[in-house]
Design goal:
CATH class of the largest domain: Alpha Beta
Number of helices: 35
Number of domains: 6
Shape: globular
Structural class: alpha/beta
Helix content: 40-55%
Length: 874
């Protein structure tokens, strides 16, 4: 027996012994014949009245652990779930089996929400699915007080933990919600949680002596593979090889929207040329909602077999027959990777999970980490700027604040600053629903309803509500909140938006929608920043933890042992076993080798060891003052302005590895870091400085040797040939625009001139200058140019800088005017450059507009202008 104090009279749930003994009889209602491993033990604990923490792999049947108890005993089971689509799928499936279930979310009108809440309070549902933010809704809380709750189920429970890979603040409030309800029996469920996250979930939810079940993380039907690549072209080649070997449906995950679009184009051409009839779809958050729904439906119904997507796709997708999941770019954590890869093979049949690994992919992830955990200096700048404003509330977008201060972080970084300041109690971030819309009606007509068509029922209803709000204040601007208008008109948000668009077309109506961001209300603007209660030590710990998660992904990709064993150890699986099927376990079975790998790697020969020693000597000559990217530029012989200003062209190691591409040198340095011959240290965030370890010094001097390196086979074959005769003049780096993304991020200021001549020089500290200093020292165009010069591609620069492509090209034009070297590959594809050259052949003296007009390719005027300016300079 378990007694629940539901903010009122004590209620008790009594479990029937007969029901408990005959649980198998309920399986038929779910279309099942038997329990899966671990399910029965969890359900027994639920019937015993215990709080539970259930860690079960994707496809392991977590939902049955609360759904079966829900239909076999009295009371309502409240299920907290993060996605509306996930709720809908679950509810549709339950309803189809005759199980009374519903979901309550923002897609419903207020009338529909009220109706479902009343049915819930009267015991009409066995399961009610809600999003975590619903627990802050007063109407929902009022209905909960009248509801007999049998169980609270927290799905995707890792979202509770700030140490998890998908932390959501509303999930963190669930502990207080349980407390208000008198601690109802609770089951928390997830597929991905490390021991640290599990402890945090139990603590945050305030679970009382919970029964913990870890049924094992192993997925024996998944074959995990990693292919090390040097860049985009090689990734595309390996992806096509993989798809040729792997029939069926699957997902290809990429890090950016632009990259997804490029992969779709590549696959459509390649699959068509090879006779593969599989259709390719695209999914990312930039698509319109109806387009995303269409793509998802077509994929679920097998009209599309391969979908290329960002991580916005997948949660809540129940497609059992996925035969593969490919990660084109490295994810931010093993939790995220295993959750996404685990969407394959839910039907129990063998499926493949491939990671196309490139060292350079980690730096975008590091940029995201730095945005999530801003420095003390950045938080101080944001706070003092907000305090200086007179507006209340402050309606400025994150982008506007960033631009006003000249910050070199993303919008998400500004948002993180606001969250920290809100936690310290000095400001309140208002919900976007609380922002005020306004309307002005300039008409003497008694009502405008009659002006609208008789069949415009929705518009007429909204117009009546607006006229009630305006009252006798015609020809004045009247402010109101959209939820209030929704309530007055009794319509949902989408329907209201459609009606307002049409009403605003009337000449006498001027409707201004509310500010779309989260406005800020300052609560205590007189408090000095140093007195704010912000734990920057804890913040630094969390930042370090995120970097460690990223390191774990790299270790997974480079580890010589079983892939699944690496994952199981990471999650603390109680019984880790070799899988016997991954690329590491099956090295001698050529039929299942990952594309591009060989059965065995030989030990490094003398030629390869010579190349390693040259790379180590380059790091040594840097004396711990430079980042890995700049050392790679120096070793490969880059004549970039930054290398020259840093004095690195004067070093004896300049151009020493000029026969290698810059991206290949970077890959080699990454492998040396993994082998602990080189270490990354220093205080400059986003730009760790590299230096030799004691073992690295020994290898460089020949006192010790090294047998293996975790590098791509192509690079290994190249360095095995040793160093060609070094030319008398400094070598110039081989360029490969598709491989440049492997260069590290350097968002800090350029290195000081001729640092090498100053033996006492110290690494630059990560300092955020005041806005006017930041703009004066490092203008916006310079930061854009810096990213390109570090090897980032256009779509990545657009994402990092949060600017349009046109603004990015404008920055490059200004950089060129300031004598900074640019490359046309940064902003034009080869086919576009060929088209421009062809147009110039027929009319060499043509003006720019005529050149643009002559192009069949869709090339914008600024790009052509910049290309021609570059061409003239050459």
């Amino acid at each position: 027996m378990r007694c629940l104090n539901l903010l009122g009279p004590v209620r008790c749930i009594v479990m029937s012994a007969t029901i408990h003994e005959d649980l198998e009889s309920y399986l038929g209602q779910f279309g099942l014949d038997a329990f899966r491993p671990g399910q029965r033990d969890v359900i027994d604990a639920v019937f015993a009245g215990r709080d539970c923490l259930c860690i079960m792999p994707t496809g392991g049947g977590k939902s049955l652990c609360y759904q079966l108890p829900a239909i076999s005993r009295e009371g309502v089971t409240i299920v907290v779930s993060p996605l509306i689509a996930l709720m809908k799928d679950q509810v549709d499936g339950l309803s189809a089996r005759g199980i009374p279930a519903t979901c309550i979310n923002s897609s419903l009108s207020l009338a529909e929400q009220r109706e479902r809440l009343d049915v819930m309070a009267n015991g009409g549902y066995r399961l009610v699915y809600v999003a975590p933010e619903r627990l802050r809704n007063s109407a929902f809380l009022d209905a909960i007080r009248r509801t007999k709750i049998a169980l609270l189920a927290v799905d995707e429970a890792h979202c509770v933990s700030e140490w998890g890979h998908d932390f959501r603040p509303d999930y963190a409030r669930l502990g207080r919600f349980r407390e208000r309800l008198g601690f109802p029996q609770t089951i928390a469920l997830t597929a991905t949680a490390t021991p640290h996250v599990r402890a945090d979930v139990m603590d945050s939810l305030q679970l009382q002596d919970p029964a913990t079940f870890i049924t094992g993380f192993a997925r024996p039907n998944l074959r995990f593979e990693v292919t090390v690549t040097s860049g985009g072209r090689e990734k595309d080649f390996e992806l096509m090889r993989f798809l040729e070997q792997t029939p069926g449906s699957g997902i290809v995950y990429a890090s950016t929207r632009k990259r997804c679009e490029e992969i779709v184009t590549t696959l459509q051409k390649a699959l068509g040329a090879s006779g593969d009839r599989r259709k390719v779809g695209l999914y990312h958050a930039g698509l319109l909602p109806e387009e995303r729904r269409r793509m998802q439906d077509e994929f679920m119904n097998d009209k599309i077999q391969v979908i290329v997507a960002t991580n916005a796709f997948g949660m809540g997708i129940d497609k059992p027959d996925l035969r593969f999941v490919v990660h084109y770019n490295m994810p931010g954590s093993l939790e995220a990777y295993y959750q996404e890869a685990g969407r394959a093979g839910r039907d129990g049949k063998m499926s493949r999970c491939l990671l196309l690994f490139n060292h350079g992919d980690r730096y975008i992830q590091e940029f995201f980490i730095e945005n999530a955990y801003p420095s003390r200096e950045v938080v101080k700048q944001v706070y003092e700027y907000l305090c200086s404003l007179d507006a209340d509330p402050i309606e400025m977008t994150l982008q506007e604040i960033k631009e006003e201060l000249g910050l070199q972080i993303g919008n998400e970084g500004v948002g993180a600053c606001e969250q920290l300041l809100e936690k310290s109690g000095v400001l309140e971030r208002l919900a976007s629903q609380e922002n005020m819309a306004s309307i002005r009606i300039d008409s003497d007509l008694p009502t405008l309803v009659d002006v609208l068509g008789r069949d415009a029922t929705l518009q007429r209803r909204v117009m009546r509500a607006l006229e009630r709000i305006v009252g006798d204040r015609r020809s004045e601007r009247v402010y109101f909140q959209l939820p209030y208008l929704m309530q007055q008109a009794d319509v949902g948000r989408d329907a209201l938006a459609r009606a307002l668009r049409e009403i605003n077309k009337l000449e006498v109506v001027d409707y201004v929608p509310p500010f779309r961001g989260r406005a800020v209300h300052m609560l205590r603007s007189a408090v000095p920043f140093k007195e704010l209660e912000i734990d920057f030590v804890e913040l630094e710990k969390r930042r370090a933890a995120e970097h460690e998660k990223l390191d774990c992904v790299v270790r997974y990709a480079q580890s010589p042992r079983c892939r699944q064993l690496e994952i199981l150890h990471y999650f603390g699986d109680p019984d880790p076993q070799l899988c016997g099927t991954c690329d590491r376990c099956a090295r001698n079975a050529s039929s299942i080798l990952p594309a591009g790998s060989s059965p065995e790697r030989e030990t490094l020969n003398d030629g390869a060891l010579q190349i390693v020693q040259m790379a180590l000597s380059g790091v040594a000559r840097g004396k711990g003052r430079y980042g890995k990217g700049l050392i790679a530029k120096m070793l490969s012989g880059s004549n970039s302005s930054q290398v020259k200003k840093s004095g690195l062209t004067k070093l004896s190691t300049f151009g020493l590895l000029g026969h290698l591409k810059q991206a290949e040198v970077t890959e080699l340095l990454d492998a040396l870091i993994f082998c602990k011959l080189v270490t990354q240290a220093g205080t400059q965030r986003l730009r760790p400085l590299v230096q030799l370890t004691r073992r690295g010094v020994d290898v460089m001097k020949g006192h010790e040797t090294i047998e293996h390196l975790s590098i791509s086979e192509a690079l290994e074959n190249k360095i095995r040939r040793g160093h060609p005769e070094r030319p008398s003049t400094p070598a110039i780096a081989t360029t490969d625009t598709e491989s440049q993304s492997s260069v590290e991020i350097l968002f800090a200021a350029p290195e000081p001139e001729d640092v090498e001549s100053n033996t006492d020089a110290k690494p630059l500290e990560a300092v955020v200058a005041p806005a006017e200093d930041a703009v004066r020292k490092h203008p916006a165009y310079h930061w854009t140019w810096t990213l390109f010069s570090r090897g980032f591609e256009l779509d990545e620069v657009v994402q990092i800088r949060n600017l349009t492509e046109e603004e990015i090209v404008d920055h490059l034009a200004i950089a060129s005017e300031h004598d900074l070297d640019i490359s046309p590959e940064w902003f034009l594809e080869k086919v576009e450059m060929d088209a421009i050259e062809k147009a110039l052949e027929s009319s060499p003296d043509a003006k720019i507009r005529k050149v643009v007009a002559a192009l069949q390719a869709d090339v914008k005027y600024p790009c052509v202008q910049l290309y021609l300016n570059w061409r003239r300079r050459q």
